[in-house]
């Protein structure tokens, strides 16, 4: 699909076909969504689909995860007319921070951090990243938000705080399921395609 074409019928997830497969080998992610962001309508529809489950919810701020989560997170914040908080890889912020170690999708040990002056107790946060594969990165971001008193949507029979987690794809890995079982989540992959994404096909 070229970067100008817009299908006559735009079903949820139509823009997933814009993503490019890995041609560089096993040290890279299996799919590159950044081509989707180059398509004007594709980007707009992707953000709209991510935000649809949160319509009417009280969201105070959007937080995006370094680095590709900055793109979707900023776009979501702009559409919601909310502020945007960058959750960074460690070592990039020159202000007071709180840090959280994690293991990313490739098995590498990393640390992320967030400034301590942006989240006040009870602030309702929508966390956005490009992809949730093993869930390690998103869980670390959730931990940072909650340690500072922010609220991410917790699902239980009696409580559902109206903020949550959004990503283009949330794989049904052990970590992905852990997040989806506990937090209000949104992603763009139709159910019929989910098995292919889980198997990296």
UniProtKB/TrEMBL annotation:
Enzyme class: transferase
Entry keyword Oxidoreductase: no
GO CC terms: cytoplasm
Cellular compartments annotated: Cytoplasm
EC number(s) per entry: 2.4.2.7
Stretch forming the signal peptide: none
Pfam families cross-referenced by the UniProt entry: Pribosyltran
Keyword annotations: Cytoplasm, Glycosyltransferase, Purine salvage, Transferase
UniProt keyword Transmembrane, yes or no: no
GO molecular function, one term: adenine phosphoribosyltransferase activity
Biological processes annotated in GO: purine ribonucleoside salvage
Listed InterPro entries: Adenine_PRTase, PRTase-like, PRTase_dom
Domain Phosphoribosyltransferase: 56-149
Assembly with partners or alone: Homodimer.
Protein name: adenine phosphoribosyltransferase
């Amino acid at each position: 699909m070229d970067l100008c074409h817009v299908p006559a019928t735009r079903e949820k997830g139509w823009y997933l076909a814009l993503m490019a497969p890995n041609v560089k080998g096993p040290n890279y992610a299996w799919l590159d969504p950044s081509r989707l962001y180059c398509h004007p309508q594709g980007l707009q529809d992707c953000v709209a689909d991510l935000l649809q489950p949160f319509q009417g919810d009280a969201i105070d701020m959007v937080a995006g995860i370094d680095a590709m989560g900055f793109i979707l997170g900023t776009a979501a914040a702009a559409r919601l007319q909310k502020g945007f908080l960058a959750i960074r890889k460690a070592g990039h912020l020159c202000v007071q921070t709180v840090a959280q170690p994690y293991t990313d999708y490739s098995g590498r040990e990393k640390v992320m951090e967030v400034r301590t002056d942006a989240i006040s107790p009870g602030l309702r946060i929508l966390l956005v990243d490009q992809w949730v594969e093993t869930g390690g990165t998103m869980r670390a971001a959730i931990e940072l938000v909650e340690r500072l008193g922010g609220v991410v949507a917790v699902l239980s029979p009696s409580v559902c705080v109206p903020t949550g987690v959004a990503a283009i794809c949330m794989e049904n890995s052990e970590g992905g399921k852990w997040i989806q079982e506990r937090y209000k989540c949104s992603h763009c992959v139709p159910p019929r395609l989910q098995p292919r994404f889980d198997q990296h096909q």
